[in-house]
Amino acid sequence: MNIINRGVRQLADASRKLTLDQSALNDRYPATSSEDSALSLPRISEYWPTSVHEELARQHWSKATITPHIDLNAWQGFLDNLPRDPYVNTRWKRMSWLHLNDQMEVETLGECPMAQGGRFNDAASMADRLRYYDPLEAAFTERDDVRAFVKAWADMWGIGPREPILMQITGVRGDGTIDPLQGQGIHADGCKYLSILVLNRENVSGAINTLYRDKAGSELLATTELAPGEVLHIHDDQLFHSVSSITQDNAGQHFERFIIIINCSFIDEFQNRMLRRHFPGAVLNDCE
């Protein structure tokens, strides 16, 4: 990391330590209304319950719901146009790199591959590969409630301007009886901050999220099943996680489960090399 980028990073880290009072937060992130629904979007300071911050500080994970803040039916409408994952044939997926600009507004960045080193995820379809996906649809990323979610998520973690944020919509669907969920086992995503949001669950059981202290899974911390609109926040550099396979409630009938994965501040140098190459002006986690 050169001197300029290191200085920018140090300034960003210093700014995170400042505690903004309620009025300052309200001025920075005023309440808005979504043009696409009757939702009244909350101020960023009111997006997450106090318990979320307390649990993240105490146990490195927390579970919350955002159904009051989003039009979940509208978000689910973007699942129909997901292309098939070219690397895992039984999944469907889109992803985009986002960031907050200097005015703390959400912007979509250009193309950069997803890269994950084998020490974080040794699944054959994931480890040490560059993976390219179609971007999220602009009609989705430009929604007021999507942008409000990204802003509130970034604020929760203390993410500053020009730090790349990876946002994915991914999931499984089918009509047969064979479980299409090709599990990754116990893994981490090679970042500091990770959240998993369930968009829908139709005709399925299972998909239980499990958190562990170590990659070997010798110390189990918690298990939870996420309903649509619920989100699991994880300090990904502190914990490991897995998800169990799914089964159809009614065999032979259509089933699907789709999620949003959003993460930032990568400790995986493989991913950071790609980010430096594609986004030279980005502020990256200094893991060198």
Report what the structure shows.
With 288 residues, this protein is of the alpha+beta class. It has 7 helices and 14 strands. The strands form 4 sheets. A 7-stranded antiparallel β-sheet has the order 1-11-7-14-6-2-3. A 3-stranded antiparallel β-sheet has the order 10-9-12, with no helix packed on it. Strand 9 and strand 10 form a beta hairpin. Residues 1-37 and 177-182 have low confidence and may be disordered.
**Largest sheet composition:** 7 strands, antiparallel
Distance between the termini: 8 Å
Outline = globular
Strand order of the largest sheet: 1-11-7-14-6-2-3
The fraction of residues assigned to DSSP E strands is: 25-35%
Please tell me the overall pLDDT: 84
* Tally of separate helices: 7
Order of helices and strands: HHHEHEEEEHHEEEEEEEEEH
| Helix proportion range | 10-25%
For the secondary structure, the number of strands is 14
**Mind telling me the C-alpha Rg?**
19 Å
In a few lines, what is going on in this structure?
This protein has 288 residues and is an alpha+beta fold.
Which key phrases capture this entry?
disordered N terminus; 3-stranded antiparallel β-sheet; alpha+beta; 288 residues
SSE diagram, text form:
Blueprint: H1 3-16, H2 22-28, H3 50-59, E1 61-65, H4 72-76, E2 92-100, E3 106-108, E4 114-116, E5 129-131, H5 138-141, H6 144-157, E6 165-174, E7 191-202, E8 204-206, E9 209-212, E10 220-224, E11 230-235, E12 240-243, E13 246-248, E14 255-266, H7 269-278
